[in-house]
Known about the structure:
The structure holds 2 protein chains of 2 kinds. By secondary structure, chain A is α/β, with parallel strands linked by helices. Chain A has 4 domains: 9-190, Pyruvate-ferredoxin oxidoreductase, PFOR, domain III (Pyruvate-ferredoxin Oxidoreductase, domain 3, 3-Layer(aba) Sandwich); 211-393, Rossmann fold (3-Layer(aba) Sandwich); 409-485, no CATH class; 490-612, Rossmann fold (3-Layer(aba) Sandwich). In chain A, helix 10 links the parallel strand 10 (286-291) and strand 11 (313-319). The mean pLDDT of chain A is 96. Chain B is an alpha/beta fold. Chain B has one domain: Thiamin diphosphate (ThDP)-binding fold, Pyr/PP domains (Rossmann fold, 3-Layer(aba) Sandwich). Chain B is 29% helix and 19% strand. Chain B is built from 12 helices and 13 strands. In chain B, helix 7 (192-204) links the parallel strand 7 (183-188) and strand 8 (208-214). In chain B, helix 3 (89-99) packs parallel to helix 5 and helix 6 (172-178) runs antiparallel to helix 9 (286-298). Chain B is globular, with a radius of gyration of 21 Å. Classes of the chains: A alpha/beta, B alpha/beta. The structure holds thiamine diphosphate, iron/sulfur cluster and magnesium ion (MG). Residues 32-33, 36, 38, 67, 139, 143-144, 217-220 of chain B line the site of iron/sulfur cluster (SF4).
Amino acid sequence: MSLESKVNNFVIRLANVNGTGSASAxxxxxxxxxxxxxxxxxxxxxxxxxxxxxxxxxxxxxxxxYLGRREGIDIMVSVNPQSMAxxxxxxxxxxxxxxxxxxxxxxxxxxDDIFYFGIPLMQMCNENYTDPRQRLLFKNIxxxxxLSALLNIEFEVLQTLLEEQFVGKEKLVAPNVKALQLxxxxxxxxxxxxxxxxxxxRDLIGNRILIDGNSASGLGAVYAGATVVSWYPITPSTSLVxxxxxxxxxxxxxxxxxxxxxxxxxxxxxxxxxGMAIGANWNGARSxxxxxxxxxxxxxxxxxxxxxxxxxxxxxxxxxxxxSTGMPTRTQQSDILMGAYASHGDTKxxxxxxxxxxxxxxxxxxxxxxxxxxxxxxxxMSDLDLGMNDHLSAPFFWEKDRKYKRGKVLSNxxxxxxxxxxxxYLDVDNDGIPYRTIPGAHSTKGAYFTxxxxxxxxxxxxxxxxxYVRVMERLxxxxxxxxQIVPKPIMYQKKDKSKIGILFFGTSTYSSExxxxxxxxxxxxxDAMRLRAxxxxxxxxxxxxxxxxxxxIEQNRDAQMRTLLIGELDVNPxxxxxxLNYDGMPITADFIxxxxxxxxxxxxQYTAETLSI
Amino acid sequence: xxxxxxxxxxxxxxxxxxxxxxxxxxxxxxxxxxxxxHDSISAAIxxxxxxxxxxxxxxxxxxxxxxxxxxxxxxLSNSHGFNSVHGRMPSVATGANxxxxxxxxxxxxxxxxSASIGMGQFVHVIRRNLNMVYIVMNNGCYGLTKGQDSATAxxxxxxxSGSINQFEGIDLCGLAIELGATFVAQSFSxxxxxxxxxxxxxxxxxxxxxxxxxxxxxxxxxxxGSTKSYDYVRQHIEATSTVxxxxxxxxxxxxxxxxxxxxxxxxxGSWLRLHKLSQSWNPDDKLxxxxxxxxxHLNQEILTxxxxxxxxxxxxxxxxxxxxxxxxxxxxxxxxxxxxxxEELNSSFR
Lengths: 613, 350
Ligand SMILES: Cc1ncc(C[n+]2csc(CCOP(=O)(O)OP(=O)(O)O)c2C)c(N)n1
Ligand code: SF4
Ligand SMILES: [Mg+2]
């Protein structure tokens, strides 16, 4: 590891205090690396607190383009005395510690295997600024300046970023540039630079963008034609609705009247949020809600009625670490089973698993098309890592003249022409999907009573067992139809090459891809598949069948996806080997490699032992 | 079984201005207990809509769960309906209303549905002044789960099993006025002549209109000692006024008003003529409405009529600033940002 070049290949972590304005400075720093043409993956590691607690911003720089988190910190920037001891302990041997040297460092904090870069940040602020708020804010810009000198980031790149940030507030550019320069000058006068850990300009970004998943989903919902949004604030989903609102304000105001072509209702709780979304979809609008685990728990009953009475609805679950309130600002993929089977009785829901912001954008439109085509809830299973962190992503793409798939809806003319009795739940096309009507469609035809109680093909209440069974079986058939139209899994090889496979989804993708490469370097070739949706289609079944073992990579304790696969596909549980990360931090490639290597060793031992008998 | 209807429509049945007979406003046969107050309210809804010439398909019937919430199946069969989950009709109605502001939203709920499990949603739909009619069929008990006391049961009211309710009853009308409801009325399922014009006025009201209708449960809460029985309600009922609903009659002028008669113009040009029976009460004065209600509690009276009305309030769409065109009528040509915007956005993320 230590022999590897550290040019464009390191991890830097910035330790800040929540609420001190460090976020925008850190973002600018990450963006400057992006602008230097080098792949970058920033992650916020923040507390469930508004002001005062430690928060970290971790940036992985990877010339090879690996975007997962990596263990081991090469450079630690400490602007927070609270967490200093722990921060220093976390640095890799040979790494760097950059700190505010206004106060002398305690002897106990000195390690002899790392390098110390003291910069008197506070002192410099006090000398150069009088306003206390400015002193706090410019401290952040000074360390960005210092870092840029140490890491060889071009001054012009940062200057441009500042100019972009302060469009309309040009007065602020000069003092910021001054702060930047203060940091740079200090390094130039006191240290040897640049470090071996540094940035060299490349052209590795292509047309990619740097954006967080929640903004992508919010924008996707605007493109997808969502008009009614109901929600209840909860981390980490809040910024999704905020993004929707931001883009809606930009693109959805009627130019003539100034009125909104959308309605956002902040509900009283998640029970109401999902109820509103269902009511709006029932009435023919595209509507969604966004939430996280605790909210999804509350939404269960309503998801049941939407499933059983066949009302489309889209729900984005930006998952966080449970159970209960859990770790609200840490990531996990631990709502898989609750999402798949939300609500009492026999229910099943379509799940989508985005893994990049571009996919968040696409899947928002897919989710509405699927929900309306299938007349059922669709849950987009994002997570905190994807939703709240910036990711290097393919740009957003919207096919010109793309039409919304509104599904089987009978219009006024359709109803007018109809001379048979309309049955809301009749399986006319033998695909399990009936025809729906929108309230107000026709003066005498097509009205029906939507209910969560047992109903027959005409929507009439029934306690007749046979009629009930018919509906339940048709819903099953509809789920079979769903398998054909949900996004297919991604195969990483045209033909299987190995007896071993890995299966992953969502934000485990980057690290799984990297792990696959590392294993290949170690001489272990594995096949890979990425799941994108539930219900699983035949490809998933075949992938598992065609491999002796499949490592299933998940970010939860209970291997929830494994349970879902076993239950739904009848696969042999022994074939699915768990690789589980559930500490709330995004999974790393090293973690996956270690686990897989260990398992393979055990297997080899076992085969050796059995053979020697 | 409740009331049977003749199978064939009589050719001479009276028609309203749309050419519909009352049959076009009826629903399927009720399965509620014979004599249940809820059925009378259904009949009043049929009559109110027929008289008002409302196109049935322009009504969306919303309900929660309970005997009361079943009733939308028993009226307006040409209207879409949504029998949702217990206590959460307001949210479904809110979403539906956001999607299409042009329909009449007729919500039906029970006292259990609204005052217990659904209290949160009841409160918030009022705050938002959602344009809907919200009828509580209030029988002081949970009919569908066999008669347990509800949160609107009065202190001291005796249940069928003989137990006495110890807890304070919630006054939905008083609460609604406190919360800023813009139309609050109380009525009795047995008084159709009052209930029908109240429903019509509520439909005309551009905002949240609550009608708390005392609606005895003959099976579980009609016993001696219950304050929600037919006998008790009849003995204690006290009307604020008699109500006439006068649709679209422009010749009516407020100078018809005097101490006894108050004219209220509705948003759609129709009028309410209230023959006041009490001088101290004024329907557009919140305080006097609250006073009148509080006094009625002290005097063990059941005050009925339109208690409070604010006909100048703004409903949810107006407050949110949504377009006049129903959102569910907009398609990709309006909803999807124009070509080229996405490339612009992509560049801004680089
Ligand atoms: C979540 C939930 N809890 C409990 C019930 C059972 N339940 C059905 S109706 C009802 C009470 C209905 O009372 P009310 O709203 O007063 O209607 P009524 O039958 O008296 O007209 C209850 C508790 C349910 N359907 N759903
Ligand atoms: S139980 Fe009571 S509320 Fe229910 S239908 Fe019978 S009388 Fe009406
Ligand atoms: Mg009741």
